[in-house]
Amino acid sequence: MNVTLLFATAAASGADIPLWLVAPFALLLLLIAVMPLTPPGVKHFWERYYAHGSIGLGLAVIAFYLLRIPAGGAVVGHTLGEYFSFISLIGSLFVVAGGIHIKVRDNATPLANIVFLAIGAVIANVIGTTGASMVLIRPWIRMNKIRVSAYHIVFFIFVVSNVGGALTPIGDPPLFLGYLRGVPFFWLVEHVIVQWLVTAALVLGAFYLFDRRSYRHAPAPIQAEIDAPSEGIRFDGKVNLIFLGAIIGAVFLPERFFLREIVMLGSAFASYKLTAKQVHEQNQFSFGPIKEVAFLFAGIFATMMPALGYIDQHGEEFGVKKPIHYYFASGSLSSVLDNAPTYATFLRLAEATAQAEHPADFADKHTEPEVVRELLSKPDYARLVIAVSLGSVFFGAMTYIGNGPNFMVKSIADTGGVKMPTFFGYILKYSLPILLPILAFGGWLFL
C-alpha cells in the first residue's frame, strides 16, 4: 500500500490531520535555515546537537500518530520503511562513489565545464541523480579548484542533482514511483524530451554567463594555466563500477523482505572493504556528510507526515485543476518536502479527479496500474502527469532539502573547503533570481 492510500485510510477512519501538527516540520526547516547564521556559540551548539533536535521533533510527531490517529501505526510504519529505503540508496551510493576517483585536468575552461555538466545531466538518467551527483561532484570540484566558487556547486545541484534526471524512472525517485504505479518506462522520454532540453539548456546558459565572467576576471597566469593542454583522465577504483551497477539494479528488485536495501547495503560494505585506502584518501572520504543527511532527513521524513496527510485529505479544496497548477503546486512542495511522496500525492489527486469526472471509463479498473494507464490514455489528464513529473523533479533544486543529493553535495563541498551559501543565501541568491524564472518560463511555454 502506498503512503497516500495510507493517509486515505486514516481519513476514512475519521482521523482528520490537524493543521497545527505541521508546526514541528516548519520548526525543523526553520532551524536548518537559521541556525548556521547564528553567533558562533549558538551555531556550535546546533552543530553538536542537531541530531537530537531533528530526532526529537520527529519522535513527537510519531507519538501523536501512534496515540491519536487510528491508522497512524500503518502510516508511521510505511514512512519508516520509506526512510530506510531512502537512506539505504543515498548511503550506499555515497560509499561506493567515495571509492571512485576520477582524475581530470584540474583547470577547466567555461566550455569544458558546460560539457561536463551536460554529460552529468545525461548520466543522471542512467544511474540516477544521486548516483551521478556522488560520482561526479568530487571530480567537478577538483577540475575547478583554481577558481572554484559557490556557484559551481549550486549549478551542479541544479543540473546534475535535479533537472538532469527528469527523463527516466531511474533518474529521480518520484519518477520511479510513477513507474511502479503504471507509467511506462519510456513514456516520459517520449513526452518531456523537449521540455528537458530547453530547461537544461537555459540553466547551462545561465551557468556559462557566471563561469565566463569568473574566467575573464581571473589573473593572466591563472587563465594561462586553465588553457593548458589536457593531461587526460585517470580512473581509480574500477571495482566500484560493479557495486554501482548492483545498487542501480537493486532498485528494480521486489520490495518484499527489504531485498533491495540488503543488496544496496551489502554493495556498500563490500565497496568500503575492497577499495584501496589511497583512493579514499584522494577523495578525502569520511562519513560526516552522510551522517548529517541521515539525522536531518530522519526528522524531515517523520515531521512531514502531517503535511502530506493534510494535503491528501484537503487537496481537492485547493482548486488544483490545470497542468500549470499541478506543476507549481507539486514543485512548491517538492522544494521543502521529499519529492517522492509529493509526486505520489498529486498523482493520486489526478487519478481521483479523472475518476470523478469519467466514472464509466474507470469502472472496470481495479488496480492502480490500470487506473494510471487509463489516465495516460486521456491527453488532458496525461498533461497532469507530465506537470507533476516535471514539477517534482525540477523544483527539487530550489532548496538544499528539496532532493536527497542536494544536501549531500553541499556537505561534500563544505568538506572540500568550498564556501557555500547558507540555506537562505542559496534561495535568495540563486534559486529565486535564476532557477525560478527558468522553471516558470518552461511551465508557461509547455504547460
What would you say this structure looks like, in words?
The protein is mainly alpha-helical and 447 residues long. Helix content is 72%, strand content 1%. It has helices at 3-12, 23-34, 40-68, 72-98, 110-143, 150-159, 173-180, 187-216, 220-226, 240-250, 259-274, 277-282, 288-303, 305-314, 323-334, 339-357, 359-362, 368-376, 379-394, 404-415, 423-446; strands at residues 101-103, 234-236. Strands 1-2 form a two-stranded antiparallel ribbon. The two termini are 31 Å apart. 47% of the residues are buried. The model is unreliable at 1-5 and 7-14 (pLDDT under 50).
Helices and strands in order:
Elements: H1 3-12, H2 23-34, H3 40-68, H4 72-98, E1 101-103, H5 110-143, H6 150-159, H7 173-180, H8 187-216, H9 220-226, E2 234-236, H10 240-250, H11 259-274, H12 277-282, H13 288-303, H14 305-314, H15 323-334, H16 339-357, H17 359-362, H18 368-376, H19 379-394, H20 404-415, H21 423-446
Antiparallel strand pairs: 1-2
